[in-house]
Amino acid sequence: LKKLENGVFAMIGIELLVVLAAIYLGARIGSIGIGFAGGLGVLVLTWGLGMPIPSDQLVTYLPWDVIMIIASVICAIACMQLAGGMDYLVHLAEKALRKNPKHITFAAPVVTYLMTMLAGTGHTAFSTLPVIAEVAKEQGIRPSRPLSIAVVASQIAITASPISAAVVAFSGMLEPLGVDYLTLLAICIPSSFIACLLGAFIANLLGKPLDQDEVYLERKAKGLIKLRGTSQVEIKPYAKLSVGIFVASIVAVMAYATAISGNVGLISSPPIPRDGAIMGIMLSAATLMVLFCKLDAAQITNMPTFKSGMSACICVLGVAWLGNVFVKGNMVEIQAFAGDLLSQYSWLLAVVLFFSSMLLYSQGATTKALMPAALALGVSPLAAIASFAAVSALFVLPTYPTLLAAVEMDDTGSTRIGKAVFNHPFFIPGVATIAMAVALGFFFGGLIL
Question: Which residues of the chain have pLDDT under 50?
Fold first, then answer.
């Protein structure tokens, strides 16, 4: 029996190595490559190692709901971008940042948090990072401080966005356990937002003052530091209308979710489930923008947000499918090994999610791949919700697009990646912010649940 058990765990170890190897390969390829490598990993597990995917259960292995929600939301965002709505939001963000320039380290994460929370994607940070770097330089503030916490905030805000794929997927897992969509948001929004503000205090203490940084002084002496001043952005005629339509669609999503909630019960027999409503509302918003903002629909697929969103869909497809094949195929063994441990030390779930998201590069994929297994192991809804912020550890490896963009946009050289890989300015503020978000999640969750 002992030899049999050793053989089983040896096989699980081999399967886990396949999963990690696929993720590593995808990370090396970069961008959409992690989704490609996830599909390769699935074939190795099934064809190579004989892990079955029952034909009648294929739909449960594939994260279709997450993918379709990402696709529909991105369609609406791409329409808003084409109409000039993103430029308008960046204009508003720049006005807010320049209004209190000396407090840029605290204002920057608020701006990126709110934009991500509104749009359901952290890629909105790309447009504000140049402004953050510029305002910091103008004030003589080390740009790595506001840039680091701004990137972290843009990632953690995914766990508080009403329309993010991660929140919608996690909410669907919690509803059978008696926790609805609004309760999840009521816990995640304050815990993550306050944690980002506390993280800004930590970021503000890191690194030498800009005028004492050797790299900055060297670059300044060479004339490599430039101040561009306030950017001049032409606001398109229908920019404000597109933003209004998009915001109205988010309000409609939340209103419908409230109406069909078991706690409210305004609609006892919903004609369409919440996930389907989100997709329908977002596609309808895209339709309205095309019609009323007079957009050329053929240009929508050329928008940067559309391309990055569709790339995210493939990434989620590959890695979540790979994770589901491994977890579902070894659920009995995982329950035997980890069930008691997680039930006694529920905070360990946050550690597991942290390291998993570090490799999977997606809050949605991490949530879809691991949260069902955690809940099946007996982790309480409170512990799962409190640990939810830990799916946002995308900043640990210095390869995530928004992190790299922040490095590139800081011509002072203060936002730089060290030779040891992990010694970069995003690491300490990010780890501290997630730790505080988890702690606050337990606090607010204990009050609400």
Answer: 1-4
DSSP label at residue 380: -
Reading the block at residue 225, the tokens are 């530091």
Buried b (16+ CB within 10 A) or exposed e, 327-347: bbbbeeebeeebeeebeeebe
Q: How confident is the model at residue 259, as a pLDDT?
A: 86
141-168 b/e (C-beta count within 10 Å ≥ 16 → b): bbbbbbbbbbbbbbbbbbbbbbbbbbbb
Buried b (16+ CB within 10 A) or exposed e, 397-423: bbbbbbbebbbebbbbbbbebeeeeee
Predicted TM-score (pTM) of the model is: 0.81
pLDDT in tens, 276-310: 898 999 999 999 999 999 999 999 999 988 888 88
Helix (H) or strand (E) holding 401: helix 401-409
The pLDDT of residue 365 is: 78
| Rounded Cα distance, 302 and 78, in Å | 9
pLDDT score, position 421: 64
Look at phi and psi of residue 387 and say left if phi exceeds 0, alpha if psi is from -120 to 50, else beta: alpha
Residue 42's pLDDT is what? Answer: 94
Q: What is the model's pLDDT at position 301?
A: 93
Residue type, 354: F
Interatomic CA distance for residues 48 and 45, integer angstroms: 6
Kindly give the residue spans of alpha helices, DSSP state H, lying in 271-362. 274-292, 304-329, 331-344, 348-360
Give the separation between CA 129 and CA 144, rounded to whole angstroms. 11
Structure tokens belonging to residue 87 = 């430029």
Query: Can you give the pLDDT at residue 385?
Result: 96
- What 3-state DSSP class applies to 397? coil
- What is the rounded distance in angstroms from the CA atom of residue 372 to the CA atom of residue 65? 14
